[in-house]
Design goal:
By secondary structure, the chain is of the alpha+beta class. The protein has 5 helices and 7 strands, in the order βαββαββαββαα. The strands form 2 sheets. A 5-stranded mixed beta barrel has the order 1-3-2-4-5. Strands 6-7 form a two-stranded antiparallel sheet. It starts with a strand and ends with a helix. The mean pLDDT is 93.
């Protein structure tokens, strides 16, 4: 069993796996439209984490992990708990970056628009402000954003995830502005 990571599963790999592979899935776009009240925010002041939205022209790069033989159920149960904040699973085709490897099925966690933590679209400036201010049991929401942006940049330098990199730029501007105000 393979699992596809497109958010924190890329950079916070706290589960056993036998193999990992960089690649992409088609028909989706990555968006900071999922609320997080259990990791990067708290009830009443949720953070924003990524989910996928259907997009016929979309392409999302990430990492597929092959779960250890004989431990699939145990690891999947852990991931189900980790992704408990409104995510459901589906199976999609994964296209490895290494073109010598044939595409294969992966399990995908998606925060759908009908789950209680789904926040949906908003102006990028509002999303950036929310990410800038949110903090939860797993840390600051800004850490999540910056780790994801750096991971995508390192794994797939040719990827131009406009939503992700625009938010990164806006949040860095907010941090700079805040630091300058603290220096006055």
């Amino acid at each position: 069993m393979w699992v596809f990571g497109y958010g924190s599963l890329i950079w916070k790999v706290d589960f056993p796996y036998e193999e990992k592979m960089v690649g992409r899935i088609l028909g989706y776009s990555r968006r900071f439209w999922q609320g997080s009240t259990d990791h990067r925010g708290v009830p009443g002041k949720p953070g924003r984490v990524v989910t996928l939205v259907e997009d016929p022209e979309g392409c999302v790069w990430g990492v597929a992990y092959r779960l250890p033989a004989g431990q699939e159920c145990e690891v999947k149960a852990y991931l189900d708990f980790r992704e408990k904040g409104g995510y459901r699973t589906t199976t999609v085709i994964f296209y490895p970056k290494d073109l010598s490897v044939k595409p294969f099925d992966v399990l995908l966690y998606i925060g759908t628009c009908d789950n209680p933590n789904y926040l949906g679209p908003a102006p990028l400036e509002e999303i950036a402000e929310q990410i800038f201010n949110a903090v939860g049991p797993s840390g600051r929401n800004t850490e999540y954003l910056f780790e994801l942006a750096n991971s995508i940049r390192n794994l797939v330098p040719e990827d131009v995830d406009e939503h992700l990199f625009s938010l990164e730029k806006l949040v860095k501007e907010l941090l700079e502005k805040h630091q300058n105000l603290n220096c006055l």
